[in-house]
Design brief:
The protein is of the alpha+beta class and about 110 residues long. The chain has one domain: Alpha-Beta Plaits. Strands 2-3-1-4 form a 4-stranded antiparallel beta sheet. It is elongated. The protein starts with 9 loop residues before the first strand and ends with a helix.
Length: about 110
Amino acid sequence: MTLEGERDDVQLVLVTAPNGEVAAQLGRTLVEERLAACVNVVPGLRSIYRWEGEIQDDAEVLLMVKTRADRLDSLTRRVQELHPYDVPEILALPIAGGSQAYLAWVRSEASA
């Protein structure tokens, strides 16, 4: 559970990447620059989508990025700068609750 004032301050951001090397570099940069507290790199993703009028079926890697809501704009800009895709997937989801100790750690690590 979270306190009322902290309900939306931690975010889970989903980002896809073309391969593990790109994903690891993105994740490392986000953590080094304190835009994220933690990035999980999940291999084995298969994405089926329409791009420029054609159906695509690609292997990708998922990044699960834990950050603070007030770092989201900076994180988004940085991913867009570094990402090889023209339009990278960047989806932010608010965290409704969880371990107070873990959420406090995210808040402290993803700080300017």
